[in-house]
């Protein structure tokens, strides 16, 4: 099994199950919490690499949940992806200003899109090359641990 741990914090059990099935197929180690309070417990015990955090949930609002997670787990360096149908620029900006690493809109995001975002957050490190128009990309395979280096030339 992969050492990437994902915590899904979602009160809609059908949606959480759909994402859990996809993440399991990708060999991620996955746990589900259905509210902010149980998410806090899972963060301290499970120590996830990525948290997919719903905004509208019972017991504790997303803001407080996010604040407590960041206070409890600064050494985890976990990535937090906000997951909601709130689509206003203000909502998205507030999440990003308050420690979120990414924002996915539920209505237009598939489980495969979420997997791609996880890859982007965890494994792709873009570095500017000294040559204009070049980008160096480094990826680490989550299954075998091999590092792949790509030097991409961008043509306008």
UniProtKB/TrEMBL annotation:
One of its GO terms (biological process) is phosphorelay signal transduction system. Gene3D superfamilies: 3.40.50.2300. It holds the Pfam family Response_reg. Residues 5-121 form the Response regulatory domain. Keywords: Phosphoprotein. The keyword Phosphoprotein applies. The keyword Manganese does not apply. InterPro entries: Bact_response_regulator, CheY-like_superfamily, Sig_transdc_resp-reg_receiver. This is Response regulatory domain-containing protein. It comes from uncultured bacterium (gcode 4).
